[in-house]
User: Which sequence fits this backbone?
């Protein structure tokens, strides 16, 4: 095999391998970049006493966060639930890869189901908003946030 | 040293029944306890652990920020402006420092 052919063939093989590995890792993670359910579970158990599968993903919860944040030290997060104000008990927010997965929890009493703040994200990982309703349901919304500089170190 | 808190209503003078966004900013370094200083030592954690918002003496929201909240944190809520009243924000951090601020909500 001459040099030219060899280069072409190897470049193709490498590109294919990289693509394949990215695809498989994306599938294994359920679509969101940097998912770490084991770490998230720790925080969920500690604050809510629930596991990840007890949460119901819901369209009624809107989580607004940037997909790419320049600095992980300051990521604006906005959570809004399209539910009547008297049905929402609390809003919790978690990040998969933070050393302490719980970012904050807010107990609402008489205000509209809306909360905005700025959080620290240690490394690229999904941010999850959990809305706790009065009838004991936990509604989930997730958004992957990619950070270029981590916010916790 | 007390924690300085700023409160702003948006719009500043809402009409009765209008939605008003309450923005609260606390001036605080919010050390998460995982960062290191220039000599490599861990900076001890020092962050706000509790923020209570009351309207005319009634608790309307309670925030419990963890170490994962940014420095000089913003806390924003939305509420229906039904009547004028006094909003009071109190907060507490890990070192036992407290901050307090009252703001009057007036209707247009």
Assistant:
């Amino acid at each position: 095999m001459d040099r030219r052919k060899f280069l072409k063939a190897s470049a193709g093989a490498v590109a294919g391998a990289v693509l394949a590995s990215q695809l498989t890792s994306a599938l294994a993670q359920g679509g969101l970049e940097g998912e770490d359910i084991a770490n998230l579970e720790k925080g969920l158990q500690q604050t809510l006493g629930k596991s990840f599968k007890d949460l119901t993903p819901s369209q009624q919860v809107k989580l607004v966060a940037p997909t790419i944040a320049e600095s992980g030290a300051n990521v604006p997060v906005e959570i809004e639930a399209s539910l009547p104000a008297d049905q929402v008990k609390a809003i919790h927010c978690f990040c998969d890869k933070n050393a302490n997965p719980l970012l904050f929890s807010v107990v609402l009493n008489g205000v509209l189901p809306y909360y905005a703040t700025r959080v620290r994200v240690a490394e690229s990982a999904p941010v999850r908003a959990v809305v706790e309703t009065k009838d004991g349901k936990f509604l989930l919304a997730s958004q992957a946030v990619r950070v270029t500089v981590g916010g916790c170190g | 040293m007390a924690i300085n808190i700023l409160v702003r209503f948006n719009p500043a003078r809402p009409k009765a029944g209008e939605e008003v966004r309450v923005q609260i900013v606390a001036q605080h370094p919010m050390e998460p306890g995982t960062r290191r200083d220039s000599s490599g030592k861990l900076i001890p954690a020092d962050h706000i652990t509790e923020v209570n918002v009351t309207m005319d003496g009634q608790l309307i929201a309670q925030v419990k920020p963890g170490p994962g909240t940014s420095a000089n944190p913003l806390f924003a809520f939305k509420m229906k402006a039904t009547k004028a009243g006094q909003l009071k924000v109190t907060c507490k951090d890990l070192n036992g420092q407290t901050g307090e601020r009252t703001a009057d909500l007036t209707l247009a």
Observations:
- Strands of chain B lie at 4-10, 19-27, 48-55, 58-65, 74-80, 85-93, 98-105.
- Residues 4-35+42-105 of chain B form a domain with the Immunoglobulin-like fold (CATH 2.60.40.10).
- The first strand of chain B starts at residue 4 and ends at 10.
- The two ends of chain B are 36 Å apart (CA to CA).
